[in-house]
Amino acid sequence: MHMHCEIYAEKIELGTTNIVEVYVEKAMAPYHYDKGKKAFAWDWYQIGGRYMGSHDDHNPRDNPNNHETCWLCDGTGKRMDMVVENGCNGCKGTGVHFKWSMEWEKHQGDVMKLSEVKKHLTAYALIIPNFGQELWMGEWWNGEQYVKTGWDGKVLDKLKEKGLTDGYLITVDYHE
């Protein structure tokens, strides 16, 4: 299952992809499934991903670079190997297919100053690495079932409660 995580960064050098990727890697490392974590464990993640644009309502479908010629119909809009309603089940007859999230063009808004993030941002998980690696989630896996924690997922409210009103958020799509 894919989940939305936000990672807080006190300082980050914008425009430097490698620094952001290394920061995220360090923040996520303690929760890799091979570390034996039960409540929050991932086996794959990417910056942005399915949650691209969460900070600013950017829609990856609006970017023409995130579309490609449909491989099922070779861009004709009609499959030749089978009969399908609308001509092609890969593109609904348009000849153009929306790429997988791993292939989308990166969106700069997935790393954003707190002051610019939309006020109603919610996430499934929030990691605050600068403060002893705090992890906030709406529910925990206790080994048998998910148990509600009482956190409502409101990212900016939690950061404000912690006295964190400056810094950055990084959107992460992770698979658990």
Please provide a written account of the structure.
The longest helix has 12 residues, at 17-28. The protein is globular, with a radius of gyration of 19 Å. The strands form three sheets. Strands 1, 2, 5, 6, 7 and 10 form a six-stranded mixed sheet that branches. Strands 3-4 form a two-stranded antiparallel ribbon. The chain has helices spanning 17-28, 155-161, and strands spanning 2-9, 44-47, 67-69, 96-98, 111-113, 125-128, 134-137, 139-141, 146-148, 168-175. The protein starts with a strand and ends with a strand. The protein folds into two domains: 2-60 and 104-175, no CATH class; 64-103, no CATH class. It has 176 residues and is α+β, with helices and mostly antiparallel strands. It contains two helices and ten strands. Strand 6 (125-128) and strand 7 (134-137) form a beta hairpin.
Which SSEs are present, and which pair or pack?
Blueprint: E1 2-9, H1 17-28, E2 44-47, E3 67-69, E4 96-98, E5 111-113, E6 125-128, E7 134-137, E8 139-141, E9 146-148, H2 155-161, E10 168-175
Parallel strand pairs: 1-6
Antiparallel strand pairs: 1-10, 2-10, 3-4, 5-10, 6-7, 8-9
Task: Give helix and strand order, one letter per element, not per position.
Answer: EHEEEEEEEEHE
Query: For the report, how would you describe the main beta sheet?
Result: 6 strands, mixed
Number of strands: 10
Mean pLDDT reading: 90
Roughly how many Å is the radius of gyration?
Answer: 19 Å
Give helix % range: 10-25%
Total number of domains:
2
What is the structural class? alpha+beta
Shape: globular
* Tally of DSSP helical segments: 2
Assess the beta-strand content as a share of residues. Answer: 15-25%
Terminal Cα separation, in Å? 6 Å
Poorly predicted regions are none
